[in-house]
Amino acid sequence: MSEKQRVLVYGMSDNPGGIETYLRNLAKELAPEIILDFVTDFPGVAYEEELRGYGSRIYYIGAKSQGLLKQWKQFRKLLREHPEYQTVYGNILNAGAVFTLIIPWIYRRKIVVHSHNGAADNERLHKICRPFLNGIAKQFVACSKLAGSFMFGQRVMEHKDVLIMPNAIEAETYAYDPMVREEVRQELGIQENFVICHVGRIAHQKNPKGVIDIFSSCLEEEKDCVLLYVGTGELEQEIKNYAAQKRVADKVKFLGVRKDVERLMQAADCFLLPSFYEGLPIVAVEAQAAGLPCFLSDQISEETKLSDLVEFLKLGDTRLWRNVILENRGKERKSRLQEIIGAGYDLNHQEKKIEQLKKKF
Questions:
Q1: Which of 65, 70, 93, 358 is most buried, judging by how many CB atoms fall within 10 Å of its CB?
Q2: The pLDDT of residue 64 is above 90
């Protein structure tokens, strides 16, 4: 390995979600020995200023709406002009990403594929593309066993060296602090409320209508309920309209994209994630680190359960969700830092996994 290796990363968007947070954390850990540079179809990327501080470069190859052919040409041009990129690290949600990653493969780059999801909206397309993705991938990484099996199939999981790379966080940043809790609750005017928190892109995968339905049901029993809805996305206006239709809009605080999620979690009383599917959601790791009771859909990998704070509930039964959530009112908050560290999800205790990943580059 050269003194300063540069790895070209695909999969970064402008939304500071799970993949973006993982890559931001990884860039910080690897620099300056290995610099992560980013190729993207978004005009800007999440955490861009911070990433540039670690020495990262950002390359824009055009929006998907312009068509694959234009993206291919831009990607090809980038690879020709930058022969230093011998490894391309694809952080992807489904095997359809092969349509982009095939370009560096054609130009004889080493393809490292990292799965961040446990299902797809278009399962048929994913299954068609999977053998082609497996064919171009030189190395395989996944955020969980479920995400690995979904992306690569069981044969690859059994016969290839698939690295399970936990979506680690700076756990101490999220550790419960009662002073911060009171401060944020006062800022938001929710000092006396029972506060439910949801963090996620407002998109189908995250089941945003389910979030509103569950909250609405809780509000029937607990009139002082408030929902902190953190995130943005393509369904944002539709979900705001849906909240108004359910007559709960005045109790929902749509906070958009925030850079202080760790503070908002201090203010909450529980965390809600009724997703249709996930890989291993980093936001659920953060919520456990904050000491929040976490209510997750049973479609999410059980690998997410790092503590006794997590309960998995069946989708569709909003009364069940309401009853379980409200039963946890007044639950004592305490630091779960040691549990997160012990489970291998703290960045400051992940040296072995980082070294294993570096070898794949």
A1: 93
A2: no
